[in-house]
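Q: Here's a chain of 350 amino acids. Please give me its 3D structure as tokens.
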Amino acid sequence: MAQHLLAGLFQGFTNRQRTVAQRERLLALGSLSAGLTHELNNPAAAAVRATLTLQQRVSKMREKLAALAAGHLDEAALQTLIKFQDEAAQRVAEAPKLSAMQASDREDELSDWLEDHGVAHGYELAPTFVQAGLDSGWLDLVANAAPAESLGGAIHWLYYTIDTELLMKEITDSTTRISTLVEAAKQYSQMDRSPYQTVDLQELLESTLVMLGRKIKPGVRVVREYDESLPPVPAYAAELNQVWTNIIDNALQAMGDTGTLTVGTHGDSEYATVTIGDTGPGIPEDVKDRIFEPFFTTKEIGHGTGLGLDIAWRIVVNKHRGHLKAVSRPGSTTFVVRLPLAGPQIGETT
């Protein structure tokens, strides 16, 4: 009876631990999914908004062009304005970055120029011209090419051209951001890939940082110290991403709103090493030896189950035959993960 009782207790404890671990993974997945949805929503909404505005700008640009062609412009002047249009479109892509003060000064300058030349609503047009990197000298060239009667229409036509280019640039940036997030999510989840494969640790770390981007506060600086010569490593990629997630998430919570998160890789003849460091308060001396114990946590009730580092330990040490340790002092904590370059021996993992 004692043997049956002990066996039952052990089996019950094992099943409970497995269930709680699965719950921890699902909670982490839910949190990451919510963050990814939020990150995707912003560029998607920006692309939709820019597309709707773009339709209006293209329509206005056609109207202005028709009015110019029917007005006081001869063919030579119209051809000259078309050249200015091409130049303005090119300048949008090459526009320099201006500080807030520089942009404000230039907007005032262009507003005064437009008002002096009788262009209606010049204060509304000036920010767009500044954003495209244009100044009053360039507008002087336009004024010399267009008759005074047509200058207002020519300026508005060029304004719609520039605004169209800026909107297309915004759409490109937004859709590129969406594509980057989707690719990072596929890399993170290792969707449609074999569980055991040869992987680039840097790519796994980068996809994890993207997935956790919403949790990285503006005051937290991310420093990357990658060894580009580190070879790919045979590993269970999706599970390693879970290790990075647990460690980085703990580091971000430890630092709060400000600090430095340092992610690095290097290697030797036998092992690939990943280091994840933070500038938080450090791990108290009296709990350092317990941080990898299941269900042990220093977080407040409701903020952690104490399984994140236990899961990381099982994946690194038990499944990959690697090493995992934490080096901590006040103001600096670094987790060191060492993975054999030869990979874990499939069939011997637990």
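Q: Can you summarize the key feature?
A: Strands lie at 196-199, 219-225, 233-236, 258-267, 271-278, 323-329, 332-340.
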